[in-house]
Amino acid sequence: MSYLYLLVVVVEVVVVVVVVVVVVVVVVVVVVVVVVVVVVVVVVVVVVVVVVVVVVVVVVVVVVVVVVVVVVVVIVVVVVVEVVVVVVVVVVVVVVVVVVVVVVVYMMNRQLLYFI
């Protein structure tokens, strides 16, 4: 009986050791899988954040460039219109002055002719 008892105890010890080893292996595998999943998720989140930031920066730069171009075009158009208006006003004034001078000289000449 004593040998049978020893055999049962040895079998129990072996079973306990095997169960402990299996549990430890399962826990290690689960921990490794969780760590890998967490690392992959973190990498994906970082990549998404970087892509979003790059897209936002590109959109902001494009908007700023468009606004600057529009402002420059408006300024150029306003300056050109002002220059055209000034040139037209100067030409009109010169024409009016020339016409007035010609009329005045003509009238003076006619008056002088009456006196002669």
Automatic annotation (TrEMBL):
What does the UniProt keyword field contain? Membrane, Transmembrane, Transmembrane helix
Which parts of the chain span the membrane according to its record? 6-39, 46-79, 85-108
User: Could you name the domain of life of the organism this protein comes from?
Assistant: Eukaryota
Keyword Membrane listed: yes
Q: What is this protein called?
A: Uncharacterized protein
**What are the leading ranks of the lineage?**
Eukaryota, Metazoa, Spiralia, Lophotrochozoa, Mollusca
